[in-house]
Amino acid sequence: MAGYTRFAQVATLEEGKMIKFDNTKLLFSTVRQDSTYDLMEDELTCPVCLELFADPLMLPCSHSICKKCLTDIIDSREKGGKNGLECPSCRKTITVTREKVANLPKNLALENIVFRFQEIQSTNLTRSSSLDQSSDLDLADTSMHSDFDETVFSENISEDCGLCDSKSPAKAVWYCQRCAVLYCQKCLNIYHPKKGSLSHHKIRKPSKTELEEKTVFCRDHGTEVASIFCDSCKVLLCHLCVCQGVGKHSGHKILALDAAWKHLRECVTSSKEQLESMMSSLTEQNSKLEELTDDVENIHKQARDKVDCQYRRFVQDVTTTLDEQRQVVLGQIGKQRSHATLSFKTHIDHNKEQLQSMESMAESCKKLLDEDHTKELLQKADAVRPIMEGVGAMKTTAESNTSSYKELITLQPVQSEIKSSVSKFKTSSFDCFKTFTGDDSEKCASLVPTIRSVASPGNLDTPRVQNKCLITWGFNSTTFTAEPLSGNSLWTVTVERNTNQIRDVTAGYLFGVGIAAQVLGYKDQVGINGKSYGVVCSNGGLHFCYEGTMDLLMPLDGLPMSVTVSVVFDHSDRLVFAYTLTSAVWGDTLVGKRVITNEAFKDAVHPVFTVSHRVKMQFPTHV
What we know:
Blueprint: H1 2-11, H2 21-43, E1 56-58, E2 64-66, H3 67-79, E3 85-86, E4 93-94, H4 108-139, E5 174-176, E6 181-183, H5 185-191, E7 203-204, H6 208-212, E8 228-230, E9 235-237, E10 254-255, H7 257-369, H8 374-379, H9 384-411, H10 414-437, E11 445-446, E12 450-452, E13 464-466, E14 469-470, E15 478-481, E16 489-497, E17 509-516, E18 532-538, E19 541-546, E20 549-555, E21 561-568, E22 575-583, E23 587-596, E24 606-611, E25 615-618
Helix pairs in contact: 1-2, 2-4, 7-9, 7-10
């Protein structure tokens, strides 16, 4: 409407007044463009806040909405317990959460159009204001205080006049676009008259945007304003720089400032988008690598623990076996020593008794020989006969003792036997080392143990069947005993969680797999008494158990897991019990061996299994 008002004022002037027809045409053009811009503004207005789009996002239905408006709607609906929203334009239901807002595409084309529209509107309004002010200057008679249209900027400008000489310059109220100088009213009347060459300059009230845009002067012609852009050299120039034959940029590709600004902005925008894409990719890579680093650190820690556990198990198994061998050898040489020293002590004690008797008899003989008179010796003749008989008996006993002595000396070389025990221990120790370093699985026949049916345990005629699954339905654990082994054997069982039970599998006595010297009762547990050895799971850990003593092997990683047991009878004085614990995550987690010298296992070896109601054991379907 400002254009219509100004046009009416110009139309009512008296004939003879100067009318700038170019300005009048511009006024008409401005009036015609207003309706077009109004229609365009409607298309660029957010349907929610009714303002120009700010940071527009594209919905799945292809309509756009301000990002802040969308987040406000989603927050409001989520507080009310509602999901999704309706498109403000087409009312189509859209499922969008606050977390998915960041994934919606940004409508960059619409954002650029809005930005350009604002620039055009600002330029047109500024030109309209300048036109009004220029017309007012031409129409005024004595002063420049006509009613100028206000600028489109509503900010309060507090800049000082650029030409005041006083120490406290007046506030600027006018701005010359051509001179790019701020004037107070007084300086404008003095230094910028409305006549002459300055009459064509555009004077308007200062705006904050123009003040922020500092005047740029040509680098080659310091007094000229840089108003041209050389696209070849990418620099701002003045009109002198492109004069034919004079300016050094003559013949270069020259762009208008708006076109150059648009092109550079597009380049910067494209670069920014590429940088953001690359930054997002790098951030995603870093996030993934950080996760992988944490995984590697975690796996490294677990693997180190597994290696340490296997190392300790091997050392402990070897140490335990060698200690058992040492105890056996020490026991043997202890028995040899005790037997020998007992025989020697018995013989010595017997000899001491004989010596006492001989000393007594020798004393009697000495007394008889001390008699000087013949008659006195003859009077004691009856004492000589017992002496002679005693000497004969002692002679016979002495000969027997001498024979026993020779046997003790020559027929029982105790010292040699004790000395040889050292070599025997060394040999048996090396045999144990060979047992631990060798793989005995190739010597074993794989089998599925045949177990007596649980339905009628007291009936000896109950057929023995190969059970593929061991499970108990009671609240107590059940132990199954298989038929005795006939040779080197190997068997595997997989322990799984009982799907009918939801309790914690890390509490209580869960299962046991091992061997027994005899058939165990159904309430006996593997490894609890001296009749069986085995690997048992109790209170979240795997243990080697014998006579109720539990030696921790490793924590229970989880179920399912496999337990493989092998028994080798190749040694006459012992059997080798080996086990392999296999985790679903790590594979062969732990391998161990025990050398069993228990005499009770020379007659029979039975595979035994204990199952609680929380787990079940599966045998392989094919062996």
